[in-house]
Amino acid sequence: MNNFICFISSKQRTRSFEKRMNKCIWLLGLSGAGKSSISLELKELFISKGLKCLILDGDILRKGINSNLGFTEADRFENIRRAAEIAKLFMEEGYWVVVAMITPMEEMRKNSRQILQNQYVEVFIDTPIEVCMERDPKGLYQQVKEKQIKNFTGIDSPFEIPQHAHLSIETAYFSIEESAKLIFNQVIEN
């Protein structure tokens, strides 16, 4: 039996990565906007079409690979950078990747765009903070009120409204299912 090793240069790998049809759909928005719920629904839509899909959820990443990071500006940047690099690895293997992370600053988004190149699709889950506070699925806004959490995005830590989003979904007006279908159809059609 002949064994051989095929080496692919990083330039060849990057070129083939750029030609892929699969994308990274980066859902960003405030806590409670609906990012995680929409990502789960999107995954089901991709799977129903026979496509491989992976979700990278900020809360889950912070319990594992990013558990050593805090909430300083540098740590938040690194949290996002790692997610983009992980997404790129899975995309090179043919996965559609849905990232659900607050991603509060434009500098963080710009870095993700640079890592993921033309595979990056930015979707702003545009939900008023009042709606997010009403939903409060994790009880975080209540903890902020009780001063148990500081530097909370949208309250006492900034969230820059995206200027380069490919799509903006107002979840105050659309259900999770409707939001996911809008995103899915837009990404697949383009």
UniProtKB/TrEMBL annotation:
Gene3D superfamilies membership: P-loop containing nucleotide triphosphate hydrolases
PANTHER family the record matches: BIFUNCTIONAL SAT_APS KINASE-RELATED (PTHR42700:SF3), SULFATE ADENYLYLTRANSFERASE (PTHR42700)
Enzyme class: transferase
A single GO molecular function term of this UniProt record: adenylylsulfate kinase activity
Gene from which this protein is expressed: cysC
Pathway the protein contributes to: Sulfur metabolism; hydrogen sulfide biosynthesis; sulfite from sulfate: step 2/3
Function: Catalyzes the synthesis of activated sulfate.
Keywords of this entry: ATP-binding, Kinase, Nucleotide-binding, Transferase
Alphabetical list of InterPro entries matching this protein: APS (IPR002891), APS_kinase_dom (IPR059117), P-loop_NTPase (IPR027417), Sulf_AdTrans/APS_kinase (IPR050512)
Name of this protein: Adenylyl-sulfate kinase
Domain APS kinase stretches: 23-169
Top-rank taxon, per record: Bacteria
Entry EC no(s): 2.7.1.25
NCBIfam families registered for this protein in UniProt: apsK (TIGR00455), PRK03846.1 (NF003013)
Family of this protein: Belongs to the APS kinase family.
Catalytic activity from the UniProt record: adenosine 5'-phosphosulfate + ATP = 3'-phosphoadenylyl sulfate + ADP + H(+)
